[in-house]
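Hello Y.,

Per our agreement to keep a running log of every chain we model this quarter, I'm adding this entry. I've kept the format consistent with earlier entries: sequence first, then predicted structure.
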Amino acid sequence: MDDSDGSSILEKLDSVVPEQLQKFDAFPKLPATYKQRSESRGFLTLFVGLLTFLLILNDIGEFIWGWPDYEFSVDATKDSYMNVNVDLVVNMPCQFLSVDLRDAVGDRLYLSKGFRRDGSSFDHSQATSLKEHAAALSARQAISQSRKSRGFFGGVFGGAKTPAYRPTYNSKPDSTSCRIYGSLEVKKVTANLHVTTSGHGYASHQHVDHTQMNLSHIINEFSFGPYFPDITQPLDYSYE
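Predicted structure for the entry above:
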C-alpha cells in the first residue's frame, strides 16, 4: 500500500465524521497574544489554600479538645467551701491596702497575702460607672453575654489551656495603683470582703493619712466557684 492509498482512506474517514466533530479540539491552543498574566500572581490561590488549612486545623482542634459550654443554675451542693475569684485595681499604692474577709460565723481572714498584689496603672477609660453598669445590664443580658464567643480558630489556638489570670501590664512596684487578684477557698456562708487602707476598719501598726485615701476601683473579675475567664460576670469592667 502506497502513500496515496493511505491518504485516500483518511479522506474517506474525514468525510464520514460530522463537521462539528471535525472542528473539536481537545487541546485548544491560544496564541500568546491572547494570554494575560493575572495581577494577583497566584496570591489569591495561596490565600485560599492557607485559609482552607486553618479551617481544617480548627476542626481537628475542636474534635480533640472540644470547647467549653456554660449553664447557669442554682447551686444545690452541700459543700462547706467555695472559691471566690477577684481581680480589681484600686487607685492606691499596694503597701497602703489591706484585704480582709469577715463572715457570718464571726471569723476574720486576713487575705492580703492570699491574693497577689501588683503595682499597676489606673485606667478606667474602658470601664463604666457602677450605676450606669447596673442600669445598662439586666440579669438576662448578663447571662446571654456570659456565653462569650470563642472567636475564629478557637479550637486550635484556645484548646487545652488552663484558666489563669492574665499578667499585669507594665507592672511597677512603686506604682500609685494596685492590682489585687487571685482565687481563694472560703466558707460557704454570708460574708463581706473588705479592701481598706491600713489603720482604718481593722487594727494595724500603720495608719494611712486621710489625704492619701482614694479607694476608687475597677472590677475586672468578681465571681464564685471555679474560675472561668471567658464568662462575662455582672460586675466585669465596672468602675466605682
